[in-house]
Amino acid sequence: MGIPSASTVEVLPPWPSSSVVVLLPTLLLLVAVVRRHLQRGGAGARARKHNIPPGPRPWPVIGNLNLIGPLPHRSIHALSARHGPLMSLRFGSFPVVVASSVDMARYFLKTNDLAFLDRPRTAAGKYTVYNFTGMLWSHYGEYWRQARKVWVTELLSARRLASAEHVRAEEVRAMLRGLRDAAAAT
């Protein structure tokens, strides 16, 4: 038994490189996503459908979070100078409407307060407190009013607060001690 000759060995075509194996499905997926986006009319059709106010164009996953700097109030002020006192932003996948003038704030908080009163439905509220049953996560309505009444009369009553005053005083002392130690260390 020696080395087989070239006539007895079947010559196979070379295996495609790993970059082609990754690149081809990625390109096909990208073409499918772009095609579907164009068939739906793009992001502009969605904005016209819901009649949302103008705002900066969001990025696909992060939305407009890249436009919010270390001082969010200044970033939003700069954006409102460009887009007006009422603008729409996207924080990740959450749409946000920003009212940045006194008149717009009055419109939302006083004129149409009942329309904008409720909390957003998030997975955190659903799974951490058994389908929005906690007062902090529940939606505005009869259940929320009853839960708030129980909180105010039972948990936040003067008697209950007075009974836990020593705990609050000890926590304040511990915080001040920590601040003093941190200041001495620097």
Automatic annotation (TrEMBL):
Query: Where does the sequence pass through the membrane?
Result: 20-38
Task: Write down the Pfam families for this protein, in alphabetical order.
Answer: p450 (PF00067)
Entry's Gene Ontology molecular function annotations = heme binding; iron ion binding; monooxygenase activity; oxidoreductase activity, acting on paired donors, with incorporation or reduction of molecular oxygen
Residues making up the signal peptide according to the UniProt record? none
Swiss-Prot/TrEMBL keywords: Heme, Iron, Membrane, Metal-binding, Oxidoreductase, Transmembrane, Transmembrane helix
Read off the InterPro entries from this record.
Cyt_P450, Cyt_P450_sf
Q: Which Gene3D superfamilies match?
A: Cytochrome P450
What's this protein's family per the entry? Belongs to the cytochrome P450 family.
Q: What is the designated name of this protein? A: Cytochrome P450
